[in-house]
Amino acid sequence: MANLRYGIIGIGSMGRHHVRNIRELPGVDLVAMADPAGDKFGVSKGMEVLPDIDALIAQGLDACVVAVPTVFHEETALKLAEAGVHTLVEKPLSTDAESGERIVKAFEEASLVGAVGYVERCNPALLEMKKRISAGQLGEVYQISTRRQSPFPARISDVGVVKDLATHDVDLTAWVAGSNYASVSAVTAYRSGRENEDMVNVVGKLENGVLVNNLVNWLCPFKDRKTIVIGEKGALVADTMMGDLTFYRNGSIPVEWTQVANFRGVSEGEMTRYELTKREPLRVEHEHFRDAILGKGNEHVSMSEALQALKVVEEILESAK
Description:
InterPro entries: Gfo/Idh/MocA-like_OxRdtase_N, Gfo/Idh/MocA_Oxidoreductases, GFO_IDH_MocA-like_dom, NAD(P)-bd_dom_sf
Structural class: alpha/beta
Protein name: Dehydrogenase
Pfam family, one: GFO_IDH_MocA
């Protein structure tokens, strides 16, 4: 079977990493790339950098990665759907849910694989966390908390911290719990003088009753990426920056000191940090997309799932208003 013919539009801060992974991915050939801004990171390696999506489609593609600013997602994706090209769009799916619905409809009607780049779902710590929760290691899940904090990234120009970063937490929270958001309440702050928000605190509840807290900002001098899931048997803590997963088991030895027992509720058991195979999440994401095109898997994040996350993000921003 011939290799899949891949193209990419947008070879900037994120697109350059897609280029590297596509080139190293078995079963695919990178045959064309486009970016109106040219090749500022020097990733073309002699390949012509085309000016736009129309020139890219003209190369005869099986699949394409879209890594342009969010405001161009709809126009680009719809042209790819019309051309019959399987597509992976960087998150978020689009600027708003109405636009996202048009994209989802186009790919469904064309019977094409439409994927969205929620790369955190491919993080080794979260993959293992999801597996262990599904196997019942925590028993009933009570609460999910996420922290995603860092300095402002120069690559962002068209959206605030909610659509750029908090969308990761919305997606992974619903995915880990196996349940959509039922309600959200949020507050935002504009502390750095930019047009869009740079801080958000989200409190929510999922349809299955799990409580949620998402803390996200661009004003922290260090990077912090944590997901904490608390259940009836203990807690799982994922450090997605390092790819580490730790289990804190509730103790089984009775606490005979009454005052301590009354205060603490549960006692401390063993703490276990799991040994994990740590592969680059973006590489895993591309494998999932390729396998979906070949009919060998469905582990990619679908456009309909990304649309659900986008709707929650809009509710977060509406609540903050």
